[in-house]
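#lab-general

N.A. 3:47 PM
ok so I finally got the sequence cleaned up, no stray characters, all 375 residues accounted for. can someone with queue access submit it? mine expired

B.Y. 3:52 PM
send it over

N.A. 3:53 PM
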Amino acid sequence: MTRSSGRRPRTRTARGASRVGERFEVEVGPVGHGGFCVARHEGRAVFVRHALPGERVVVAVTEGTEGDRFWRADAVEVLEPSEHRVEPPCPYAGPDACGGCDLQHVAVPHQRELKATVVAEQLRRLAGLDVEVVVEPVPGDTPVGSGLGWRTRQRYARLPAAQGGGPAMRKHRSHDLVPVDQCLLEAPDPSPHVVRGMSFAVAADGFWQVHPGAPEVLVDAVLAVLEPRAGESVLDLYAGVGLFARFLAEAVGDPGLVTMVEGDRTASAYSLDNVAGATALAGDVGTVLSGLPTTPVDLVVLDPPREGAKRAVVEQVVGRAPRAVAYVACDPAALARDVAIFAEHGYGLVSLRAFDLFPMTHHVECVALLTPRAG
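B.Y. 4:20 PM
back already:
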């Protein structure tokens, strides 16, 4: 998964008496961005987990007070199920249980359809674009097609010693622990850090895509949209350990034409091992760019954390007039906001591919191509 900002949900100020625990029936509306569907109760929006569009369910409020604009809730009883509903394969999935998975109650092919709907809606709402989105499966789950056994790096919480100290997972938006034997998303083998036959040096606790098929799929997608040519200059932002930069350096024929910028100093140091001869700059991407000359560059790769690149970085990218920008995004809302900023500066969205790198969760990875509009 693309690097997260690490932020926890903001604590909301109570606006009246708590409605937590209250139950009522709702008809479930469209899927929302964040692993829930939207329903309405007495005019108020209710964000419902463990439900599907079109279902009629009984929900239990998990967050909400009298004065809130919306409440959060779990579907605790399904009165009219969707044809796409399945029995969750994991015994720890469901209301008041492990919060790691959002979609275990949904057939895997329909999970991708829901994610495609979310990506398209975010681009429509935040960027004013109507884009047809198809979320593509990625090989690497175990058993094949199950949506399980793909997470090559897994961290468990631990129960207190008084409760046996065993492995646990946290409930959704909570520090409360759920004892587990094993997460079914965990892959049987660790990641080999090998892409297209090339090995990458990565710190033991460093960032690397957790889905075994992700690195190669993303490299292929980025190279396909950028179509790098010999002699072109490359700026790889949020470069990590140099995954994209390594293959772009090979494509342009000279690593000296590639500059990598990465906020994590350890990852930046490893990128020099992985892309010998390239330039690696460590530090906040916006700050580093602002200290560099605005020399034109041919190609840019953006692979920001969950909050996106944001205006300061986008404007410094377009200020270098690249002929093509490949934007790798793990959050469709952040992608859409940044696409809108690119549009302000004459760059349009040319293509978008979406990949199901995180089955059973609401997360989805996109690779977008932005180029200067004619005129």
